Every structure is written in C-alpha cells, then in structure tokens.
Amino acid sequence: xxxxxxxxxxxxxxxxxxxxxxxxxxxxxxxxxxxxxxxxxxxxxxxxxxxxxxxxxxxxxxxxxxxxxxxxxxxxxxxxxxxxxxxxxxxxxxxxxxxxxxxxxxxxxxxxxxxxxxxxxxxxxxxxxxxxxxxxxxxxxxxxxxxxxxxxxxxxxxxxxxxxxxxxxxxxxxxxxxxxxxxxxxxxxxxxxxxxxxxxxxxxxxxxxxxxxxxxxxxxxxxxxxxxxxxxxxxxxxxxxxxxxxxxxxxxxxxxxxxxxxxxxxxxxxxxxxxxxxxxxxxxxxxxxxxxxxxxxxxxxxxxxxxxxxxxxxxxxxxxxxxxxxxxxxxxxxxxxxxxxxxxxxxxxxxxxxxxxxxxxxxxxxxxxxxxxxxxxxxxxxxxxxxxxxxxxxxxxxxxxxxxxxxxxxxxxxxxxxxxxxxxxx
Length: 426
Ligand code: ADP
Description:
Layout: H1 16-31, H2 38-61, H3 66-72, H4 79-87, E1 92-96, E2 101-104, H5 109-112, H6 128-140, E3 144-150, E4 156-165, E5 175-182, H7 184-219, H8 226-258, E6 267-269, H9 270-287, E7 291-295, E8 303-305, H10 308-326, E9 331-342, E10 345-354, H11 386-396, E11 401-405, E12 411-418
Parallel strand pairs: 7-9
Antiparallel strand pairs: 1-2, 1-5, 3-4, 4-5, 6-8, 9-10, 10-12, 11-12
Bound molecules: adenosine-5'-diphosphate (ADP).
C-alpha cells in the first residue's frame, strides 16, 4: 500500500546561507569589541540579501517533487476509502478533481508500474478516450465507462469504469475511482472465433466454387463431350469428398472442444487401440506401398486413463498422415515404447513413425494449429484440422503430442501416458 508524501514535507533550508552570513558578521563585530567597520557590516547585509534572493529563485526553479505536489493539495482519501480501493482485486486508482493520483492499490503495480502520488493520471494513461471519460465524470458527476488498450510490452485491453466517489459533505464528489477490468483473454478468444469462422468458410468455399464451375461447364460447353464429362465428374467427386471430410473434421473438433474433462475412471487399453488402428489403416497403407509394422504390442493389455474411441481417432489421424505425407519412406511403425517414469509414475509412449520426407523445424511449433498445412493451401491433400483434433483430444487426456522430425529422415509423433497397473485398471 502506498501513502508516500501524505502529511510529510521536506524541510526548507533555503535561508541558511543568509543566516550564516549575518551570523558571521555579528560574530566578527563582537570579536572586534563592536569596532566592525561600517563598510564590512553593510557588505555582510548586502551579501545576505543577495544570497536570500538567489535561494528563493533556486527553490522556485526546481521541479516540484511528489512531496511538494502532495502538500499543494489538501484533498486526500481517508484510511477507510484507501482500504476499499486496496481490497479491489483488479487495478484501481483514486484521483482528485484535478485528475492527480491520490491512491492506487498494489494490484495495479504489476500491469502499470509505479505512478507517483500527486502526478496527473494522464502522465501514465495517455489515452484521449480515458481522459475524456475522466473529464466528463468531473463535469457531470456521473459514472463513465471506457476502454483502454496498450500495445507494449504485450497487447492488453481493459474496460475502465470511472466512478465519482461522494464525500461526507454535499459538494461535488472529491474523488474519482478508476476500476480497470482486464479484457485481454476474452478479446483474444473473440478474435480466434472470428478467425475460425472466416477460415472455415474460406475452406468450404474453395471446393464449392470448383463444383459450381464444373457443373456450369458440363451444362454448357462440355455438354456433348463424353471424355471431358468423365474427367470433370471425377474431379467433382474429389471436391465433394473433400467438403464432406472438412465438415466431418469441423464437427469432430467442435464435439471435442465442447466436451469436458475425461470422466474419472475411464480406462483404455492402448494395445487394443493401436491394434485396431493398424487393422483399419492396413488396406490404405498397402495401396500406398507402405509396409506397416506393429511395435511392442503383445497379447497383454496396456492400461491408461483414456477414452478408447477418442484415442483410436488420435492414432488414426497420425497414421493417415504418415501414409499421406511420409509414403516415400515406404515404412510405417505403430506401437509403444517404455518411457522414463514421471513423478514416480511408470510411463508408456505410444508412437506413429514414418520414414518419409520429414518436416522442417520452422513448421513444427505450428503443426497443431487449425488449418495449418506445410504445403500451404495450394496442395489440398488435407483439411489442416487433423493434428488440431489430436491436440484437443490429448489436452482432455492431460497429455500432449511430441513431434520429432528431421527433413529427409521421417517423423515420429508420440504421446506419453501414465501406465496403470492391472489393479488400477479395474
Ligand atoms: P491435414 O488434414 O492437412 O493432414 P493435419 O493437421 O493432420 O492436417 O496436418 C497438418 C500438416 O502437417 C499437414 O498438412 C502436413 O503438411 C504436415 N504433416 C502432418 N503429418 C506429417 C508427416 N507425417 N510428415 C510430414 N508432414 C506432416
């Protein structure tokens, strides 16, 4: 809590040189038994006067420190009012009618730093909107609300309530209370939501535009061209499949995002999950010329906390990617490896590894963003949502996706789980 300067002031030493000069003259006179020459006495008095004049001038030219500003005003919030401001859990400031800061709570220090008591609040908050709200509150005595945003050191947005605080008397409110409410997180969420809608619409519009174009061509110039018709119908089928994949992925994503935490006690057998994924994906791998190997999976179950269907979806997405993007390597491994214990709990690592072209390091941190594709949108092999779905499922499972890859050396996507012993799995 800050109350610096209140009731305290600096001592005024400005007259000291004058006093010393006059005292010296007086002492000299006494020492000489009253025989101080008249000229010397006059010189002492003149010197004293000049020194006094200089000291006043010096004092006036010096910028007023906080203590000086503080003394200049007699309006200070009392202890009760300060206590209320201190109790507020978001940044709060009390300013007087001249908009000078009179009190602020400790919470305000982290986002806004130290602002000296007595300083105009506009020195720190250089916002015309906020200033206007403050002036309107002083002029009308009514509460005002405004927004305040800062770009540096990080983007932050605040809603600011400017509330006149009435004193005991009947006069105009002596203080304004500024309450800052942090809106940064909700603004960011809003922006993400609008970006998402814009991206999703764009992704759907592309195949739709292509379908419309081909339908028009088939109705017009290519009406009688049987060969063109076949080719166009194939492309149209591709595009409509792409649209339905996109819609499926969007629905999966929204279903996963709306679901809450895993139910406690939900168990999944990782061996069963990975065997089913391998079984499902095998025809696709064969068709792509990719040899599939199961690693570390025997007859025994491997129990983890998890939802079987969701984990099947995770490893199917990873295996499909390995075939789509890593087929050049000609091999795909799906399986488990033991990992070092974490916080005293045994760990198991489930992985999908391919030996294809790999992923450049600059893409790795962004792979799980929605709609992110290394090849960009021109090579429309995927929706860019697969890894985003994986990430969201794993967050619910309180674990995360690890990606290790070297360009030209393939990629390993792995997930660590607490391995439960058979008694916990019941
Ligand atoms: P998509 O539906 O486009 O496959 P994902 O979110 O599953 O979307 O993957 C995002 C991007 O990550 C892909 O477009 C691809 O560029 C890259 N990627 C994913 N898996 C692999 C992999 N095994 N090898 C190389 N690149 C990959």
